[in-house]
Structure formats: C-alpha cells, structure tokens
Design brief:
Order of helices and strands: HHEHEHHEEEHHHEHEEEHHEEEEHEHHHH
Largest sheet: 6 strands, mixed
CATH class of the domain at 197-357: Alpha Beta
Oligomer: single chain
Strand content: 15-25%
Shape: flat
Distance between the termini: 10 Å
Radius of gyration: 33 Å
CATH topology of the domain at 197-357: Collagenase (Catalytic Domain)
Strand order of the largest sheet: 2-1-3-5-4-14
Number of helices: 16
Structural class: alpha/beta
Length: 504
C-alpha cells in the first residue's frame, strides 16, 4: 500500500470512528425525548377504597334484635365501598329510662347525645317508641351520630332508610359515574352539585334594579358572622370557603312575569326561571380559580312587584326562591323595608347551600331530621365520605388516563416535575386507602385531596405537549439535508475500509 493510500485509509478510519463514537451518541442524546420514570404498574393496580365504619344496633329486646339485625347487616354489607363492623345488643337500664321518659324525638335525641360518644364515622341505631313519630318516617337523626328508629317498623324500610343516611348507594353511584359516566344511576343528583373542591368562593349579591325608587341597606357582615360562619367553621375540614359580597344597581333578572288579577300579584313559573340567570358578567366581577357559589337576593322592579314563584302544581312557593344547579340560588324578595331582614335571607341561602353541597341525599319519606343545626355530624360524615370517594375516584381515573396516554404516544415529554406529582399522587392514594381501612375520615379526606391535586397538576402540566405536535414527516424533512451528505461520506469510508480488509 502506498503512502497516499495509507493516509486515505487512516482518514476513513478516523471519520468512521468520529461518526460512530461521537456523532451518533451525541445525536441520539440530543434528540431523544426525555421521559422521567413513572410508577406505571402501581397506577394500573390502584384499588377502590374500603371505608371502615362501625354500626351499633340497640333494640328493645333480643327478639326484635333478631328481626332487625340480620336485615340491616345484609343491606349495609351490599356496598362495595364500605367495610362495616355491625354489632347489636339489648338496651341498658339507663337507655331503658330514656326510652320511657321522653315525650319527643328532640328530647330523646338530647338524652342519647349524653349517653353515647359522638365518634366520627360511627352510628348508633336506637329503637324509639312509635308514638314519637308523627309522620310516615321510620328513622330520625339529630345532633349526634345516633339514629332513632321507629319500634315495630318494617325492617326492609328501616334498612333502606339507614342506607339513605349513610349514603351507601349514592357513594357507589358517584364512583361509577366518575369512572363510567354512562352507568350513572342518579345523574340528576350528580349534576346538581359541584364536585368536591379544595376551596369555594361564596358570593352574596343584592340586586337593586331601581335604586332611584328603592334603595335598602343590608348588614351583610353581621349576617355572615351570625348565620353563615358557624356552618363554614363546622365544615372547615372539607372546604376552605371565602365569602364575598356585592350590591348590583340598575341590573335586573330577565323575567317576564304574568299578572294574576284574582291574587293581585305577578307570577313566574319554573320554565320562566330557567333563562333568567343571564347576568354572569355582572355577578362575576371578581377573579378566582376556586369554584363559586352565587347567592342572589333580587328586589323586583315596581312593575314586577309583588312577584311570586309558582311550583309544578301552580302553588306559590313559601320561600319564593329557586336553585340553579352548580351555580347557586336566587331569592326574590318583595319588601319595602329600608333595612332588609337578614335572618330570612340567610336561612334561605343556607338551605340552598346544603342542597348544593349534596345534603339532600336521604329519603324524606323515610328519614326525619329533628335537629335545628344547619349541618349535623351525621351529614358532615357523609360529606367527608363523599369527598373521599370523589377525590380518590377522580385521582385514580386521571392517573390511569395519563399512564395510558404516555404509553401510547412515545414523543410526549415527561419531566421531573410531572414525575414528582405522579409519585406524590400514588403515594397519597395509598395512604388514603390505609386511613380509610382504619375508619379515620378526616385523615382519609386529607390524603385523598392531596392525591387529587397532585394528579390534576400532573395531567394538565404544559410540558407534556412540548413535542406532541412535531410529526414524523417534519423530522425527516429536517434530518435528511443534514444526514444525507454525512451518510454518503460515511458509506465511502466504510467501503474503503472493507476493500482494505479484502485486499489483505
């Protein structure tokens, strides 16, 4: 081999080694889509929660216990989300005295509140005299976590009523509705209330369309402190609520009332109310990332006043208020007072607030509430269970959807922030399941909420879409002008090296 040919061979070798040893690795590292590690197997194996709960049945005698107990235990054990510890016994002498002495459910409830500790996520079902029940209801609950059932009632009706109070059927439906919306068995209830959120904004508005004719005042700060704040403090573990207020002048609802000459007032029906809330821009005068519940007090114009709302049967509603699903509530106030009666207004709004949170879950034909509390402990426990189920179901669905998406599309970037949030969501999900097995509702809710927030942050991270819209044909169009000259030279070098080996 001559010297010039030797130099050509060495050059070919050098070019080949540079391409293979430096060029190709550098190209591979600089063009590879970064994908941080994710717990794919753990995500796919996430289990539904099992909420432990203790139920104690206290009956008059052993015979009644044997009638009611098995029916209750079977009915409560049908839910896939509950792990119930069911026990039963005959009442003690002290409880016997309470059974005989009191003449109303309110008095009996007050006594039972003293006899039984109000333990979170537990229920005591106490047999009460049938004469205390004035209506068709077979079950009553009050200030504590003790349910009073009508002595001698149908065990099947009692089981349905207890399931209604605990919310076993609704919680099962909620989990199903989130994971499989087409299988939701109670869509109206699901759609009426907002999904459980870490924070809520409550906006109290007063609408005065004719301030030149009538301009009342309202002491909203005092009303919130006296009527609304105790309820918000009671549910502080579930919602961080921010209360805001405003007065809207020269703004009215889009109503076309009908005058009733016999009654002497104007009326609107449910159909008229459906399109009346067309004032979103005026009400939403604040900016917030939290869900907002609006509560509006509307003072009719002089032409509309007095204005009454008719129900389905054409009867005047006593509250003269209506509910807008997921939006809030409206109260039509016919008054000429210079200072508004805030107790009436706040009581109406509190009732609407309960409904929007989902606290109309129990069957009123079977269950009676004897407490004057806006939200009692039994209802608070239901909200906690509801929040746990919603948070965990949404978190599970979100993480599994994200996992499926990332495995199907290989050019989605997964940075460390996304990976961190996913690991945090999975970790808190597991912690929530452990707390649910212990029956600790508040800890379960706290962990489930953290899992929900982390999963949402990961799913909606902007970096996931960084290279999603960079198709393959564009990659070829970019790389061919670069790699074609390199490939020709590389092929020539390989050919020269191969020819040298053959000649030797």
């Amino acid at each position: 081999m001559t010297k010039p040919e030797s130099w050509k061979l060495w050059a070919a070798w050098g070019y080949t080694l540079v391409i293979l040893g430096i060029g190709l690795p550098v190209w591979w590292l600089t063009t590879t889509v970064y994908r941080a590690n994710l717990p794919y197997d753990e995500i796919q194996n996430l289990q539904e929660p099992k909420i432990s709960m203790s139920v104690l049945l206290i009956s008059t005698d052993a015979q009644d216990d044997h009638k009611v107990g098995p029916v209750l235990q079977k009915a409560l054990g049908e839910s896939r989300l509950f792990n119930l510890d069911f026990r039963s016994r005959v009442r003690s002498d002290t409880e016997e005295d309470a059974y005989i002495a009191f003449k109303s459910l309110q008095e009996l409830d007050q006594r039972l509140l003293q006899l039984h500790d109000s333990l979170q996520n537990s229920l005591v079902i106490f047999e009460a005299p049938p004469l205390l029940f004035k209506g068709p209801q077979v079950l009553a609950f009050g200030q504590g976590r003790t349910l009073m059932y009508k002595s001698g009632c149908d065990p099947d009706k009692l089981a349905t009523a207890v399931k209604s109070v605990i919310g076993t059927g609704i919680l099962d439906n909620i989990a199903t509705a989130i994971m499989s919306p087409s299988k939701d068995k109670n869509p109206s209830w699901t759609l009426r209330r907002p999904i459980t959120a870490p924070s809520l904004d409550v906006l109290l508005s007063l609408m005065i369309p004719e301030p030149e004719k009538y301009k009342p005042t309202w002491d909203i700060e005092k009303a919130v402190e006296e009527h609304l704040q105790p309820t918000l403090d009671f549910i502080a573990a579930l919602y961080k609520v921010s209360v805001k207020s405003q007065i809207l002048y020269l703004t009215s609802l889009s109503l076309k009332p009908t005058f009733n000459p016999d009654a002497g007032f104007n009326t609107v029906t449910r159909d008229d109310l459906g399109l009346s809330i067309n004032i979103g821009s005026q009400l939403s005068s604040h900016v917030s990332s939290s869900q907002t519940l609006n509560f509006l007090t509307y003072i009719p114009t002089s032409k509309q006043s007095p204005l009454k709302i008719l129900d389905k049967q054409g009867q005047v509603l006593d509250t003269n208020a209506f509910l807008v699903p997921r939006w809030g509530g409206v109260m039509i106030l016919n008054t000429n007072q210079t200072v508004l009666d805030m107790k009436v207004i706040m009581n109406t709004f509190l009732t609407q607030f309960r409904d929007l949170l989902g606290l109309d879950f129990y069957d009123g034909d079977l269950v009676l509430k004897v407490s004057n509390q806006v939200i009692c402990p039994t209802e608070r426990d239901f909200l906690l269970r509801l929040g746990c189920v919603e948070n965990l179901a949404v978190s599970r669905m979100t993480m599994q959807s994200l996992s499926h998406l990332l495995t199907q599309i290989s050019n989605i970037v997964i940075n460390e922030d996304v990976s961190k949030e996913v690991f945090s969501a999975v970790d808190n999900y597991g912690r929530a399941l452990k707390q649910a097995e212990k029956g600790d509702l508040e800890s379960t809710f706290e962990k489930s909420q953290k899992s929900f927030i982390s999963s949402e942050k990961a799913f909606f991270d902007d970096t996931l879409l960084a290279l999603l819209y960079f198709p393959e044909d564009q990659k070829y169009a970019i790389y061919i002008p670069l790699f074609l000259p390199v490939a020709i030279s590389f092929y020539g070098s390989l050919t020269m090296i191969w020819s040298s080996f053959k000649s030797q």
